[in-house]
Amino acid sequence: MNQTTRTLHDYWVIFIIATRLGLTSFGGPIAHLGYFHEEYVRRKKWLDEKSYADLVALCQFLPGPASSQVGIGVGIIRGGIFGGILAFLGFTLPSVIVLILFALAVHQFSIGDASFIHGLKIVAVAVVAHAIMGMGSKLTPDLQRKAIALIAIAAMLFWQSTLTQVVIIIGAAIIGIIFFQNKATSDETTAKLFLSKKVAIISISLFFILLIILPILSQVIDSKWIQMFDSFYRSGALVFGGGHVVLPLLEQEFVPTGWITEQEFLAGYGAAQAVPGPLFTFAAYIGTVIGGVAGGLVATVAIFLPAFLLIIGTLPFWHALRHFAKIRGALLAVNAAVVGILIAAFYQPIWISTIIEAKDFVFAVILFSLLAFWKVPSWVIVIIGIIGGMALPYI
Length: 395
Fold this sequence. Notes:
Helix content is about 75%, strand content about 0%. The protein contains 15 helices and no strands. It is a multi-pass membrane protein.
């Protein structure tokens, strides 16, 4: 599909696939990358392994929800900015709708400890393991890159912080520039980007303008909506490390001010763990508690807007730079480091918080085998995970 041949059907396909992922992608950002890899790389072949890994590496650099940015990036590569919007809406709206409804009925039900949640966590184990297996075989083919991945694993597990992740990627890039230039080839990838640098510059400029202007406006104008938009925008713009890292920022913004009680905050956090899609949609819950359905929608737009502006603002330059020999060498090493980061995240928190008993491990192996060897679709794996999660307490 190119700039001139996109049809309504092409855009519809982008939206439908993203929506299916939004309905079935449980397990947090690392699991989301696994689901994306399975759907966009393995099944649809919209990107090759290298293009996908490059996109993941870019999104690891940027603040905001990395998995959502990867999804937006895939949509942009496939269908331009409108494709990115559709990919974002499809992936995000299911959990936004659920969390808005939950906020409207927050005192009437609780699903945070439901047994099927554990089954969905085991689904995440299987999906991430499958993604790592595929990415690892392609992106760490030699001993040098395996060593980079091992160092990344050790560093991430011994020094668990967002800064560690950034240092690992920068360090890997330097190693790649120095040692991997001769390994890098100019092979064409399946990813073709139809996004101008002018649009990118406008987008990145708007990101910084809003970051500066909104706090000033919230002080000058006594408006709940401007203050709320500012708080969510800054939270989305200044956080590295994904949804779990943004939670303390949101608590600091809204609980001490009395906009939401700590009990309401924790109830929403429990619900956010139970829904598919990005954890940043927790903002929809907070916004709904504060300002009803309109508040939930405003909060969702505000917290994801920085991620959208950043991916549009950086992707065209990233796409161009990756064709230079030094940059390609850097990407070879960075991709290997990303594999290590994913493996570390697979262990902590996914594995150690999920595989607690022997039956958990057996169920995870079954799901992995169905996915990897029997090629069972991911949505079927999710259904089996839900049923298995409810059955496990009785085994």
